[in-house]
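cron nightly-structures :: item 1 of 1
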Amino acid sequence: MEKMSNAARRRLVFLANFLSRYENDRVTSKAIQEATGFSSDVVRKDFSRLGLGGGFSNGYDAKKLLGAIRAELGLPQTERRCCIAGLGTLGEAVMRCGIFDGTLYKIVAGFDFRVNRTEVLNADFPLYPANKIESVVSRMEIEFAVLAVENEYARAMAERLIKSGVRGIVNFTNEAIAESENVFVENVSLVLALDNLCARMK
């Protein structure tokens, strides 16, 4: 089978998220196009690799489609453990906003270079100083980290997380963090997102 492109993979991840909140039993490629902006032709091509029929007048069984996408991409079927690295304003907002509610991603620990932040914040999970990252990540089998430190601390914190055995980092800072052979990174800075919008609007 032809290797999936990064663009197709990102579309399918987006569509899995869309379908997880979709309320009808069936969904057509036209309805997906209207909701997401992805052309119906491209959507049907992406879905063709999943071995599911339908997609024209009768559409797809939404639950089966979601299951097929999740299986194809290796999206989680069981709980995956995450941590927040950086407990300043941004990290605290991520911690309290409930964005992971109803998902299979669970925040189980938080870290900060400033010991006083770990002592004064209240959280539903334990908070640790940064020098505990290696032991805690290993003991709690944490796979993913949300990097939310101030920009000047981003690389140092990322290095600690990588050395600890974290496999994936969502980087909310403005510092680009490079991937390594065994660690995957999503750089999702709001400034980067706005720059991308400006470049598209040129």
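cron nightly-structures :: done
The radius of gyration is 19 Å.
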